[in-house]
């Protein structure tokens, strides 16, 4: 049974009554869908109003009822006829249409959150699988809620005026400087002006051309030189293999010497010093393999929550 706290009938009635009384001229600006209504008849009435608007037909009780009847959308014709006329006749509108729209959307979202949380609780109770699988599924559900809360939808470009102005002013303030995250590769930093938040960079080349080494060098530079947290997902190499590559790069000892057991007495202290530096850096490696996009997101979210980090770079080897 639906809780009263997840449904506000007065707002749904006032919203539809407003449209039946005053028309739907401003409906295009209202971010409400038929599915946002809790009452089934309200959903059908709103869907009819939307279709009539698309056909440029005047909105009133007669046009709405005719549409519902012609499209076989009336379930109890006499009762629903009377109800729709009551929306037109008895509804007292005291607020702008947008006010009721916000209320309807808010309660619709609450019902969705409630449904997701109930499904998550049911999964926890009944799922026979391992705890990590359950955790990832529940966390994915909670992320869906968070994404919905943060979703901005379609916005006019006028809302970006301040952000664009701030960006230009920041560029002017730092003219000639690298504005993003430095990789310590001079040419790359000059070409990109540093790695930027929300940007995706794909490193592609034929096998054997040094993609892994280059990517690891970028990651280790960000962590070692600039002390910025880095996450590395390896779908092929083990964490030890990756760390040995980083250690060799940092110590400037050729990795082939390590593979072929050809280390000299001078190499050992360099490698040991690098091990201390690399293992002290804010680098987090997951070499599980076979991970999905949701696995990546879930593990990073867990890391950020438990370690209280602001992550600077993700590296995934290899897609």
TrEMBL record:
Write down any Gene Ontology CC term: cytosol
UniProt superkingdom: Bacteria
Q: Which GO terms describe its biological process?
A: DNA replication, synthesis of primer
> Where does the record place the SF4 helicase domain?
174-319
Q: Which InterPro entries match?
A: DNA_heli_DnaB-like_N_sf (IPR036185), DNA_helicase_DnaB-like_C (IPR007694), DNA_helicase_DnaB-like_N (IPR007693), DNA_helicase_N/primase_C (IPR016136), P-loop_NTPase (IPR027417)
Answer yes or no on keyword Ligase.
Answer: no
Q: Does the keyword DNA-binding apply?
A: yes
Q: By its UniProt entry, which Gene3D superfamilies does this protein fall under?
A: DNAb Helicase, Chain A, P-loop containing nucleotide triphosphate hydrolases
State the PANTHER family in the record. Answer: REPLICATIVE DNA HELICASE (PTHR30153:SF2), REPLICATIVE DNA HELICASE DNAB (PTHR30153)
Q: What is this protein called?
A: DNA 5'-3' helicase
Organism of derivation: Leptospira interrogans serovar Australis str. 200703203
